[in-house]
Amino acid sequence: MKVFIPHNHRRCQVCSQNFFSDSPICFEAVSEHETLTKHEAVAKYKTKAKIVPTDKAEGYDGMMQGGIVTTLHDSAMLHCLFQNDIKAMTVSLASRFHHQIAIGQELEVRAHWVKSRRNIHFLESKITQNGRLCSSAQSQFMSVSSYQT
Predict the structure, then answer these.
(1) What does UniProt give as the signal peptide span (predicted)?
(2) pTM of this prediction?
(3) Is CATH 2.60.120.10 what the domain over 7-143 is classified as, yes or no?
(4) Hey, which of 77, 99, 104, 107 would disulfide with 129, CB 3.0 to 4.6 Å?
């Protein structure tokens, strides 16, 4: 299932343009059901997307540029919040680089919600290529009210 994008985010230069590859990135929702102690069913969503980065995302020869990798994490985690009907803005984001990401080879980015406290949401994401963890990130997002979005 494709992730719903709020109307005021549809012109985002990262999400709606060919920022990473030859076509706009398309995030899918991955549902995960958990049972709470009071036997209430709760659905948590994860998001994922697969892209083949092009030279638009290149830093050093043949490698994806680090700032663009971090942007991909940010986009994935934001779309995870969209899937959970939360409109928010990035407060902080820390990314780690484990292995280089090659240009021209498919990668997968996955993001998932960790927890929320008041109006702060904690998320994590991972980018893999050929089954190898290349980058991971943790972030905090702050909910924004409907008049701000």
Answers:
(1) none
(2) 0.85
(3) no
(4) 107
